[in-house]
Amino acid sequence: MRTHRIAVIPGDGIGPEVVREGVKVLEAAAVRAGMFRLEFDWLPWNCSYYRRHGRMMPADGIEQLRTYDGIYLGAVGDPSVPDHVSVWQLILPIRKAFQQYVNLRPAKLLAGLESPLRHKEARDLDFVIVRENTEGEYSDIGGRLHPGTPVEMAVQTSVFTRYGIERVARYALSLARRRRGHVAVATKSNGLAHTMPYWDEVIRSCRVEFPDVDVSFYHVDALSTLFVLRPETLDVVLATNLFGDILSDLGAAVVGGLGVAPAGNINPEKRFPSMFEPVHGSAPDIAGKGIANPIAAIWSGAMMLEHLGHPEPAAEVVRAIEQVLAEGRVWTRDLGGTASTEEVGDAVVRALEHPR
Ligand code: NAI
Ligand code: MG
């Protein structure tokens, strides 16, 4: 029987609380499927590690991670450490080193949940955001000049490469081919007059390989209104690193909030491990109370199963989540319920074992 080795990075705040439930559900799913084993190694790389060692992960952290089949992350971030440190020293190096150039964020209204958008139902809310995850606006190129003086200034340069745009565009186009055949591209070629026309041009050049896929370009500000007013027109949304980051929180909001929004940082060629994590952060405001919603983390785990080549067990986990949500009894506070993080994890395991 095949064994998948998974590196678990629980992280900070509610990260460890939600990841514990995710691992519980994944273990149950593996036992039920009986076709593969999961072996979890827990890596304590987070902000307390930073306070002790002056870095978010060991110097050979990336080398250690390279040997795994997948990475399962909670969230990092603590008020005692600047957010750019926790993100730039842990999450971004992993995304870049392992060429996880697709950040995949499904925005799908699960059975049992209601959208905050009036009159929108599950059939109106089922799209996927493909966010470029290795370059664009989140580049390390920049700096500060004359710090602490009246003429202090800062620059940060966006980087768009043909290679980087082509690979994420091809991913989005082929994903659309397997879905409803439509890609909405987020651009801003009116305001960002160098990078965004190039982004559009390279995507147009890839599109000829996918004549059966319909592609529309929207300025990102206009596209954000579609998320709210006509989400049923969306199938695959392709966006740059920054625009995709913002749009995916909006996408999460219209399908039930951050507590139920999953994400995968994917290396489609599977040359390197991919990393799965909820969209949300470490939520210091509710950490330690046992009230965080673990569904985003559990669903992210299901995406990991699918990536590892187990689509049926992955679908079963999502179905079990929907069963729990539809029953409406074991909901955490963000959804209007009173259940604890652990109670939701246990309920999903039960639903997995007793499908309705
Ligand atoms: P956040 O996502 O942690 O929290 C935003 C709001 O949503 C809070 O009110 C929080 O209580 C609520 N929330 C988030 N997840 C929830 C869940 N599972 N169940 C119930 N409620 C939930 O974003 P915020 O506050 O901007 O950032 C907090 C920290 O997290 C910062 O240090 C930030 O840098 C870090 N962060 C880390 C990310 C990552 O590790 N990938 C992503 C986003 C933020
Ligand atoms: Mg974000």
From TrEMBL:
Which reaction does this enzyme catalyse, per its entry?
(R)-malate + NAD(+) = pyruvate + CO2 + NADH
Q: Where is the signal peptide?
A: none
Q: Which InterPro entries match?
A: ICDH/IPMDH, IsoCit/isopropylmalate_DH_CS, IsoPropMal-DH-like_dom, TTC_DH
Which parts of the sequence belong to the Isopropylmalate dehydrogenase-like domain?
5-348
Enzyme Commission number(s) from the entry: 1.1.1.83
Keywords tagged on the record: Manganese, Metal-binding, NAD, Oxidoreductase
The protein's enzyme class? oxidoreductase
PROSITE patterns hit by this protein: IDH_IMDH
Question: Which Pfam family, any one of them, does this sequence belong to?
Answer: Iso_dh
Required cofactor(s): Mg(2+); Mn(2+)
Family designation:
Belongs to the isocitrate and isopropylmalate dehydrogenases family.
NCBIfam families hit by this protein: PRK08194.1, TTC
Report what the protein is called: D-malate dehydrogenase (decarboxylating)
Query: Whose protein is this, by species?
Result: Kyrpidia tusciae (strain DSM 2912 / NBRC 15312 / T2)
